[in-house]
Amino acid sequence: MSTDITSKKYPVVLRFEGLWRHQLACYEMHRKRTGGDLGHVDQGCIHPYKRLIGEEDWARKAQAEVAQMRAENFADELDGLTRRKRKSDIRRRMVEGLKEPWRNSKHGPMREVILTAHKDWFEDDIDGFLGLTSREEQFEEHAVSWLKETFSDDVVHARADREETTYHVHAVILPRTVSGEGSATRRMLQPSKHEVIKDYEVAQDSVGKWFAGLELTRGENRAAKIREARSKGETPPPKKRHSRTQEWRAEQELKIKADREALELQEQKVVSREEDADAILAVADGLSSGLIKLDEVDGAVQFKQTEAGKHSPDSPGLADRIRKSKGGVERARRAFGRAWRRTTERADARALAEAKAKLVKEYEEIRAADTAIVNITDMLPYRLVRQIVKARKSLTKSILELKRSRGLSSGDPKANLRNEDPAEK
Q1: Rounded CA gap, 360 and 354, in Å?
Q2: DSSP string, 8-46
Q3: Could you tell me which residues come within 8 angstroms of residue 4 by beta carbon, excluding any fewer than 6 positions away?
Q4: CA gyration radius for the chain?
Q5: What is the rounded distance in angstroms from the CA atom of residue 286 to the CA atom of residue 305?
Q6: What is the pLDDT of residues 146-186, one digit of tens each?
């Protein structure tokens, strides 16, 4: 099995975060997992972090050192003013008290360093699988050596975190320096003393060269691209904004929450559609088995339980399936209702046609009888003929009234025959 790791290039990631002295306590809480944002942390990890540089009480020592710098600077300043007999300045400084040993800035006097790589680079750990030096250990060795080479004793703390999504190294830089000369000498914290903090591009070049042995590359040189675009008169690419780890996690949690809500909504829609479909099937089952029937109430089609359904053991389960979805029942009512109305309308049309045919047949029979009566009168005496004609008029009137009341079509081919009054013959 090959151990070549050059098949895909991944960049080494370097970030700096400003750090104030009062933030060290929160930093330690997060390191020890005793407080703060722990939602991204694997609480089941046996060895959550590994200390690489500094003692366990490094934060307390750093706090004490900064306090000592404040006190020593104040004492040295008062001593210088005393030697120069600047009484008014001494009184003023006594009122002002101790000053922090750094110049005002928006980022703070210290720096937190974060070193890592893409999680796929760590997971594709063939060497670790074979029991050799793992990529985490290789990365750790390079990170420690780069920190010491770049910051020397100013690295007061470094650790490796293993219980988060991606292995990474944290370090804290306490950038000690001395400013001024003679009696004006002061011990200060000045991050810009380190070129890699002063110039971000220098820092990216530095780690890119240092980690090249692990086949990790330098991060994207956006500054060079911006300079090149400006030199060509083109619109430069936008500057990439690096979110703080806490901000990034908050953004990810919001995204995960939104995705989860969208998934839950989709699942609810799927369940609702399944319930609708099952309710429609339940109605179909009930109609086919004769447990329910369709009826029209106040112009609306309704489902009603049949007498067989009232005594069937299958009815309760069928009713539960139908009740689960009002939307499904409404769709079933519209679908089955339309079919039921069409069936009813066709049945009514057939019944009407059959009734008309029966009336026509009955009329023809009466007409034939009337014709026979007319033929018979030719063979009877005049007195009997007058009686028959009188009775026949009454019979013809009844026939015509029957025809009109039943609504026989006047467009029928036999209409002329039916409208004739036999008495007029």
Answers
A1: 10
A2: S-EEEEEEEEEE-GGGHHHHHHHHHTSSS--TTS-TT-S
A3: none
A4: 50
A5: 9
A6: 999 999 999 999 999 876 678 889 999 999 999 887 767 89
